[in-house]
Amino acid sequence: MNHSGNTKGRQPKPTPLQTSEIDHINAPTWFTPYAVLAFDQLKPLVVDRAKAEDLPLFYSMCVAFGKVMESEEAIKEHGLTVVNEKGVICKNPLWSVQKEATQVFNALCVKFALSPVDRARNANEQAQQAANDPMAHLLLKAQDKRV
C-alpha cells in the first residue's frame, strides 16, 4: 500500500451492470414518490451507461430530483417569502434547498450524459420526437403529480 492507503498499480476497471441485472433493480424503499418517479423514468436511459459503481450516483440523482419537486411544492404552499423571527419578510429558505438540489441533479445528469446537449449528440435520441423524450416525459409526469 502507498501513503494514501491505496494499493499500488492500476485500479480495477468498473464492472458494467448487466442489462438483466439493472432491469430487476427497483427503487429503494426509502425513496420519496418523486424520487421513485425519477428512478423509473431515468433507469432506461442509464442502463447502457451505468456501471456497478455508478448506482449510488444514480440514486443521488433521483433523490435530488425528488428534493427539487418537494421543495417546489412547499414553496407553493408556504409562499415565495416568509416572515423570520425578527418579523422581517425574507426569501423562503426552501429556495436554497431547491437551488442546491437542482445543481446536484444537473451535475449528475451530465455525469450520465443526460443533459440536453448530450442527448442532442446521441443520434438515436436525436431522431426521437419531443413527445418520446424521456426527460420531457419525466417533467410532464412530475407536473401532473403536483396538480
> What is the string of helix and strand elements?
HHHEEHHHH
Q: Largest sheet, order of strands side by side?
A: 1-2
From the N-terminal CA to the C-terminal CA, the straight-line distance is: 56 Å
What is the number of strand segments? Answer: 2
List the uncertain runs: none
Q: Kindly estimate the percentage of residues that lie in beta strands according to DSSP.
A: under 5%
Number of helices: 7
Shape assignment: elongated
The largest pleated sheet is described as:
2 strands, antiparallel
Q: How much helix is in the residues?
A: 55-70%
Number of domains: 1
Overall pLDDT score: 79
Radius of gyration: 19 Å
Structural class: mainly alpha
Overall description:
By secondary structure, this protein is mainly alpha-helical. The chain has one domain. The chain contains seven helices and two strands. The protein has helices at residues 19-23, 33-46, 55-78, 94-111, 116-121, 123-127, 134-146, and strands at 81-83, 89-91. The protein has a two-stranded antiparallel ribbon. A hairpin with a 5-residue loop joins β1 (81-83) and β2 (89-91).
